[in-house]
């Protein structure tokens, strides 16, 4: 008929090609997405150790700063009393009452807290226990996994060391040199103590440090505070005789290498 167009012919082959193209596009998108996910997973796996290492480096620096603050407090205490604090105070019967960490409170900007403590009663007496359970940021290593009221910053209590017990030491008693003698060290998390407790570690615990360091702390070693206020990182592999020399304050040994 005039004025009418012939019916449009449908090309089945063309429809098949269009469907195939759609399928290919979908598969390409899916494949690209999977490749992107895999790539991101691999990238994340590569970056994660670096991120963890950076975080530990920051925690280690924060820990070092805490111990430097303790060192400054020790020197200020010595300037005030002409001696370092004793490792612990005792009552009339010789019973330990309070830690050196308690005595340092006024010198780490915690005087108000210090004045609330009854020094004539034990640290865990009901009068003092609420304070003992408080968190002192300066006594907290961010790499440890302890109760926040515990600390890994401890003295090495030894008759030949800087911290001998209830008898305080003066700088002039440290004849090996302040830069060669340790005052305070950080212990592994399993040796953590309540910060107010008159409890620290002995020489053997310090000599054994690092033999099984798997309870938190820093990988490969720990910080130690020397009597001159310097903070040095003592590696777990440090020679045992060197460790003992660094504790003795008057054995005429000047070993200061091989940390």
Automatic annotation (TrEMBL):
Tagged with keyword Transmembrane: yes
Spans traversing the lipid bilayer: 22-51
SUPFAM superfamilies: Pili subunits
Residue ranges of every copy of the DUF1559 domain listed in the record: 52-152
UniProt keyword terms in alphabetical order: Membrane, Transmembrane, Transmembrane helix
Cited InterPro entries: DUF1559, Pilin-like, Pre_pil_HX9DG_C
UniProt superkingdom: Bacteria
Keyword Nucleus: no
Gene3D superfamilies, sorted: Glycoprotein, Type 4 Pilin
NCBIfam families linked: pre_pil_HX9DG
Protein name (database record): DUF1559 domain-containing protein
Native source species: Novipirellula aureliae
């Amino acid at each position: 008929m005039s004025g009418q167009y012939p019916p449009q012919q449908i090309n089945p082959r063309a429809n098949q090609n269009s469907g195939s193209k759609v399928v290919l596009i979908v598969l390409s998108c899916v494949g690209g997405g999977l490749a992107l996910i895999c790539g991101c997973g691999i990238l994340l796996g590569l970056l994660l150790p670096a991120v963890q290492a950076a975080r530990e480096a920051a925690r280690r620096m924060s820990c070092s700063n805490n111990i430097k603050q303790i060192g400054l407090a020790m020197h200020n205490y010595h300037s005030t009393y002409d001696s370092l604090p004793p490792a612990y105070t005792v009552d009339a019967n010789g019973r330990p009452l309070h830690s050196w960490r308690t005595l340092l409170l006024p010198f780490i900007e915690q005087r108000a807290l210090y004045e609330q403590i009854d020094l004539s009663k034990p640290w865990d007496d009901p009068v003092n226990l609420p304070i003992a359970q408080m968190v002192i940021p300066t006594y907290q290593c961010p790499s440890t996994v302890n109760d926040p009221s515990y600390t890994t910053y401890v003295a090495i209590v030894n008759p030949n060391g800087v911290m001998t017990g209830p008898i305080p030491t003066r700088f002039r008693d440290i004849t090996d040199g302040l830069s060669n003698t340790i005052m305070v060290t950080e212990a592994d998390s399993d040796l953590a103590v309540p910060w107010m407790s008159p409890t620290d570690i002995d020489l053997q615990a310090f000599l054994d440090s690092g033999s099984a360091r798997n309870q938190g702390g820093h990988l490969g070693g720990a910080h130690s505070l020397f009597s001159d206020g310097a903070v040095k990182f003592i590696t777990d592999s440090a020679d045992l005789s060197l460790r003992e020399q660094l504790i003795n304050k008057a054995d005429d040994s000047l070993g200061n290498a091989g940390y």
